[in-house]
Design goal:
Helix content is 50%, strand content 21%. The protein is of the alpha+beta class. The protein has a single domain, classed as TATA-Binding Protein. Strands 1-5-4-3-2 form a five-stranded antiparallel sheet. A hairpin with a 5-residue loop joins strand 4 and strand 5.
Length: 157
């Protein structure tokens, strides 16, 4: 194999590409929650749940409106960015690069068939890829639980 890799840069490139993206796929564990209501209604409910839980909403991004602003179209899709320093700070103390994944984000979007979903990355899957963050960190269980509770509430469950 080594001889083949040395003699064929294309094989080496393909191997490196597959190794890079195999790791990215393994770490990108997404949680999907089906919701009832429009994207705006579900995002409103999520924002209300986040605020009621004592977390801070940092931004609400309407991707569809952004697309419309350039004369293009997207199905309804909004991203809510929120967090709580009590959970995020310990993660960043373990590895400052946790700031790439924090604050937490939930995308609310509509499928072509009209169904609405909330989707987010599992913090255990994303943050444990960082040195110093272990899968038994208390803040990870709390983040995971908060995301499940908040999205469940917003979904109407």
């Amino acid at each position: 194999m080594m001889l083949l890799v040395k003699r064929c840069p294309l094989v080496m490139s393909a191997l490196m590409f597959s190794l890079l993206f195999a790791g990215a796929e393994a770490r990108a564990e997404r949680i999907n929650v089906e919701a009832s209501g429009s994207v705006a209604e579900v995002t409103d409910a999520l924002e209300a749940a986040v605020t009621a839980a004592g977390a801070t909403v940092f931004a609400r991004v309407d991707h569809s409106a952004g697309a419309a602003g350039i004369g293009s179209e997207l199905p309804p899709a909004e991203l809510l960015i929120f967090g709580n320093p009590k959970l995020g700070t310990p993660a960043m103390q373990d590895n400052l690069l946790a700031g790439l994944y924090l604050p937490l984000k939930v995308l609310v979007y509509q499928e072509a068939d009209g169904r609405v979903f909330l989707v987010y990355d599992d913090p255990v899957a994303t943050l444990t890829e960082l040195d110093g963050v272990t899968d038994d960190a208390v803040y990870l269980a709390r983040m995971r639980g908060a995301l499940a509770a908040l999205t469940g509430k917003a979904a109407g469950r």
